[in-house]
From TrEMBL:
The chain crosses the membrane at residues 58-79, 134-153, 173-195, 275-292, 298-317, 329-348, 368-387, 423-441, 453-472. It comes from Streptomyces venezuelae. It is found in: Membrane. Its main location: membrane. One of its GO terms (molecular function) is citrate transmembrane transporter activity. It comes from the Bacteria. Residues 222-262 are annotated as: Disordered. It is a multi-pass membrane protein. Residues 250-260 have a biased composition (Acidic residues). Keywords: Membrane, Transmembrane, Transmembrane helix, Transport. GO terms for cellular component: membrane. Residues 15-421 form the Citrate transporter-like domain. This is Citrate:proton symporter.
Length: 473
C-alpha cells in the first residue's frame, strides 16, 4: 500500500506542477501532508517535517549565503570579463549561445557545486537570452544536463556516496568511467547544437550591435508616437526608452532591469575595479576550501558573504542595499528548499521511499541477475530523480550490489553504473540547486521539467550505453 501511495504522491506532484495547477512550494507542502493523512500517519506529520527541515537546513543556509556572495561578486564586476568573453564568442548567433551555455556550465561545474554553477551560468547568459528573445527553458535545460554529467566528479557527491556505501575507492569508480562520461558530455554539446539550430531557425542571426540598434530605434519610435498624447502617457513611454518602469522594452544600457546587460554596464555604481584581484582571490580561495573540505560549505559561504560585503561595501546602507537587491532570490530558493523538506520528510518518515525501493528491487526478473550492471544503471535514472542521492546510494545501492554479487557481478561495476543517472538527477524536485536555476532564470519549474526530462534521460542512457560499449560496466 505504501509503495502505491508513494508513486501516486510523486506522480500527483509532478502532474500538478507541470499543468501549473499549483505552485511548486504549495505542491511540495500540501500534497505530502495530504498523503501523510491518507497513510494514517497524520499525527506524526510535525515530526516528519521537522526532521526534513533539520536535514535540509544546512543546504538552505548554504544557498542563502551563496546567493548573497555570488550576487555581490556579480555586482562588483568580478564576472564581467567572463561575460564579455562569452558574448564576443556567441555574438547573437543562437547556436553559439546555446553551445556557450553548455560549455560554461560544464567548466564552472568543476567546483563540484550545482548552485554555484547555476548562479554563474545564469548570470552570464540570462541577459543575452532575454535580449534575443530566446527560450529560457533551453538555457535551464542545457545547464542542468551539463551540470548533471559533471556532478559525477569525485568531489561532486554521487561518486563519493557510492564509494562510501560500497566501501570502495572513489577513484576506482570515477577514472574508468571517464570515457563514458566524456561521451555524455559530447551528447550534451550535440544537444545544445541541435537546440541552437532550432532557435536560429526561429529567430535568425543578428550581430549584437544590430540587436541593440533595433531596440534603440523601437524605443525612440515609441517615444515619438506617444509624444502627442497627454503628459502621463509621454512620461510612461519615456521610462520605457530610458530603462525605467515599463513593459520590458528597456534601453540596452539600463542597469536597473533584469532584461538588461547587467554584467556589461561599465558605469553601474556597485563596480569595484580596485578590488577586482581581491575578489578574484577570495573566490578562488573559497572554491579551493570547498573542494579541499577545510570547513563545511555553509560555513564557508557564510564567512565569504560577510567578508565580501564588508570589504566591498564598508558602509552599512550600501550593505543593506546589496542584501535587499538579492533578497527575492534568497527567499524564493530557501522557501523552496524548506518546502521540499516537507516532501522528503513525509517520503522517508512514512516509509514510502523504502517500500518503493524494495518493490523496484524485487521486481527485477531472476534472469536479469547477470545483467545487474545494466539494471543498476537503468534504475539509477528514475530513482535518483524521485529520491535524494543519500536515499539511493545509502539505501538502494547496497541491496543492488548484494544482488549483483550473488550473480557474479562485481561491486565496482555496480558502483560505476549507479552514477549514470546523474544527468537527470540535477533536475529533480528534491535537488535544492535546481530552484536556484529556475528562480534566477525566471522559469516555471513545471516548464523546466517538461522540457528537460526527455533530454536528460537520453543523456543518461548515452552514459550508460557508452559504459557498456567500452566494457566499463
Amino acid at each position: 500500500m505504501l509503495t502505491i501511495l508513494g508513486f501516486v504522491m510523486i506522480a500527483t506532484f509532478l502532474v500538478l506542477i507541470m499543468m501549473k495547477k499549483m505552485s511548486p512550494i504549495a505542491a511540495l507542502v500540501l500534497i505530502p501532508a495530504l498523503f501523510c493523512v491518507f497513510v494514517g500517519k497524520g499525527a506524526h506529520l510535525g515530526d516528519y517535517v521537522l526532521e526534513g527541515v533539520g536535514n535540509l537546513a544546512p543546504t538552505a543556509a548554504m544557498l542563502m549565503f551563496a546567493i548573497v556572495y555570488f550576487g555581490v561578486m556579480i555586482d562588483v564586476g568580478l564576472f564581467d570579463p567572463i561575460v564579455r568573453g562569452i558574448l564576443r564568442f556567441c555574438k547573437a548567433d543562437p547556436v553559439r549561445i546555446v553551445v556557450g551555455t553548455a560549455v560554461l556550465a560544464a567548466i564552472v561545474s568543476l567546483d563540484g557545486d550545482g548552485s554555484t554553477t547555476f548562479m554563474i551560468t545564469v548570470s552570464a547568459m540570462y541577459p543575452l537570452y532575454k535580449r534575443l528573445k530566446m527560450s529560457l527553458v533551453v538555457m535551464t535545460g542545457v545547464a542542468a544536463t551539463a551540470n548533471g554529467v559533471m556532478n559525477t566528479l569525485p568531489w561532486g557527491g554521487p561518486t563519493a556516496r557510492a564509494a562510501t556505501a560500497l566501501k570502495v575507492d572513489a577513484a576506482d569508480i570515477f577514472v574508468p568511467m571517464i570515457p563514458a562520461l566524456a561521451m555524455g558530455l559530447v551528447a550534451v554539446f550535440l544537444l545544445a547544437y541541435a537546440l541552437g539550430l532550432r532557435e536560429r531557425k526561429r529567430l535568425g542571426i543578428l550581430s549584437l550591435d544590430e540587436v541593440l540598434e533595433k531596440e534603440t530605434e523601437t524605443a525612440d519610435e515609441t517615444v515619438l508616437v506617444g509624444a502627442g498624447g497627454d503628459g502621463d502617457s509621454r512620461t510612461s513611454l519615456t521610462k520605457k526608452a530610458t530603462g525605467g518602469a515599463g513593459d520590458g522594452t528597456d534601453a540596452p544600457d539600463s542597469d536597473t532591469d533584469d532584461d538588461g546587460f547587467l554584467g556589461l554596464d561599465p558605469d553601474r555604481p556597485t563596480l569595484r575595479p580596485k578590488l577586482y584581484w581581491f575578489n578574484a582571490a577570495l573566490t578562488v580561495l573559497l572554491l579551493t576550501a570547498m573542494i579541499m573540505e577545510w570547513l563545511p560549505i555553509p560555513v564557508l559561504f557564510l564567512l565569504g558573504a560577510a567578508l565580501a560585503l564588508t570589504v566591498n561595501f564598508p558602509h552599512m546602507p550600501d550593505q543593506k542595499a546589496r542584501i535587499g537587491a538579492h533578497a527575492e532570490n534568497v527567499l524564493n530558493v530557501t522557501g523552496m528548499v524548506f518546502a521540499a523538506a516537507v516532501f522528503t520528510g513525509v517520503l522517508q518518515g512514512t516509509g514510502m521511499v523504502d517500500h518503493m525501493a524494495d518493490w523496484l528491487v524485487d521486481a527485477i526478473p531472476e534472469g536479469m541477475g547477470p545483467q545487474m550492471g545494466l539494471v543498476t544503471g537503468l534504475l539509477s535514472i528514475p530513482l535518483t530523480y524521485f529520491m535524494s542521492n543519500d536515499g539511493f546510494y545509502f539505501g538502494v545501492l547496497p541491496v543492488l550490489a548484494e544482488a549483483g554479487q550473488a550473480h557474479g557481478v562485481g561491486t565496482l561495476e555496480i558502483a560505476r553504473a549507479s552514477i549514470a543517472g546523474q544527468a537527470l538527477h540535477m533536475s529533480s524536485p528534491l535537488v535544492p540547486a535546481v530552484y536556484v536555476l529556475v528562480g534566477m532564470a525566471k522559469v516555471e519549474f513545471g516548464d523546466h521539467t517538461k522540457f528537460t526530462v526527455k533530454w536528460a534521460v537520453l543523456t543518461s542512457l548515452v552514459v550508460l550505453g557508452s559504459g557498456i560499449l567500452f566494457g566499463i560496466i
